């Protein structure tokens, strides 16, 4: 089995190397990661500049490692198209420092990289630990390698995307593992989320969108709930953002708009 490992925290992140060390025991690992931290860039792809990739010395012996001067999604694209080509059985992104829960999967670079693998038809797994100064990467690394073994044994569904989050606690304190759905921020938090600091750098004024601890709706069975219970959360994701519940009520609007277009007199 050959596993492509990537992340959004960059090549120096301790979570990356904890994961690589564990995966290296069971598979051939190739690391292709951004050369610096790229948290919060989601699925962004660089279209307006050339991308440079270069091999670097790995922190785990004999693991082929490249850095890309780009986003996590760029790293996966360059890895799959140019560096390791199609000889990849599985993609794992992480281990991220900080949880990627609920609506945040849409801005997460960790999940964004996993989406890029998924778009290429690969089974892809994003792994995050729920603390911005995470210290317990060992359990997350083991979960990654056990999931890889499940994949190798054919026990994962084809072309699945898993978003895995763990509480930042030692193994003894973990109370279980739960298959979850994405949680949601509360409405008040959605407003507060736009907490912005205004400042001046001596030359120009600026706005700074602040990183703040989100407030979540408490829903049993959500990823947020699982982490609060000190459980490991696994959420299967897909990329269909279609709001099926809104389709029927919008049909009338569509025909009205079309009618208005066709009956409007030409200028
Ligand atoms: Mn990150």
Could you describe the 3D structure shown?
- By secondary structure, the protein is an alpha/beta fold.
- It folds into two domains: 2-183 and 218-263, Stationary-phase Survival Protein Sure Homolog, Chain: A; 186-216, no CATH class.
- It has seven helices and eleven strands.
- It has helices spanning 14-23, 72-83, 109-119, 138-152, 187-192, 223-228, 244-263; strands at residues 2-6, 28-34, 53-55, 64-68, 90-97, 124-129, 161-166, 176-179, 196-200, 205-209, 231-237.
- The strands form two sheets. The protein has a nine-stranded mixed sheet, with helices on both faces. Strands 9-10 form a two-stranded antiparallel sheet.
- It is globular.
- Manganese (II) ion binds at residues 8-9, 39, 96-98, 109-110.
Instruction: Report the sheet with the most strands, covering strand number, pairing sense and barrel closure.
Output: 9 strands, mixed
Which percent range fits the helix content?
25-40%
Query: Rounded to an integer, what's the Rg over CA atoms?
Result: 21 Å
Beta content comes to 15-25%
The CATH topology annotation of the largest domain reads as: Stationary-phase Survival Protein Sure Homolog, Chain: A
From the spread of the alpha carbons, the general shape counts as globular
Summarize model confidence as the mean pLDDT: 93
Provide the CATH top-level class of the largest domain. Answer: Alpha Beta
Structural class: alpha/beta
Strand order of the largest sheet: 3-4-2-1-5-6-7-11-8
> Into how many domains do the coordinates divide?
2
Low-confidence stretches: none
Ligands in the model, by name, code or SMILES, are: manganese (II) ion
CATH superfamily of the largest domain: Survival protein SurE-like phosphatase/nucleotidase
Distance between the termini: 64 Å
Number of helices: 7
Order of helices and strands: EHEEEHEHEHEEHEEHEH
- Based on the coordinates given, report the CATH architecture of the largest domain: 3-Layer(aba) Sandwich
Report the strand count. Answer: 11
């Amino acid at each position: 089995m050959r596993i492509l490992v990537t992340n959004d925290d960059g090549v120096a992140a301790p979570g990356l190397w904890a994961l690589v060390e564990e995966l290296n025991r069971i598979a051939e690992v190739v690391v292709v990661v951004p050369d610096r931290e790229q948290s919060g860039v989601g699925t962004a792809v660089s279209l307006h500049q050339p991308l440079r990739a270069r091999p670097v010395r790995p922190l785990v012996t004999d693991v082929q490692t490249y850095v890309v001067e780009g986003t996590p999604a760029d790293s996966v694209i360059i890895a799959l198209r140019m560096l390791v080509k199609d000889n990849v059985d599985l993609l794992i992104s992480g281990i991220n420092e900080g949880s990627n829960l609920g609506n945040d999967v849409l801005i997460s670079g960790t999940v964004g990289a996993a989406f890029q693998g998924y778009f290429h038809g690969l089974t892809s797994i994003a792994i995050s630990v729920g603390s911005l100064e995470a210290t317990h990467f060992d359990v997350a690394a083991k979960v990654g390698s056990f999931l890889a073994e499940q994949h190798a044994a054919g026990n994962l569904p084809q072309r699945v995307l898993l978003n895995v989050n763990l509480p930042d606690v030692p193994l003894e304190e973990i109370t279980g593992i739960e298959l979850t759905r994405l949680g949601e921020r509360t409405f008040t938090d959605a407003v507060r989320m736009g907490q912005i600091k205004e400042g001046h750098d001596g030359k120009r004024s600026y706005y700074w969108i602040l990183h703040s601890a989100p407030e979540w709706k408490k829903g049993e069975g959500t990823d947020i709930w699982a982490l609060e219970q000190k459980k490991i959360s696994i959420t299967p994701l897909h990329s269909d953002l279609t709001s099926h519940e809104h389709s029927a009520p919008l049909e009338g609007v569509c025909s009205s708009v079309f009618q208005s277009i066709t009956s409007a007199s030409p200028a």
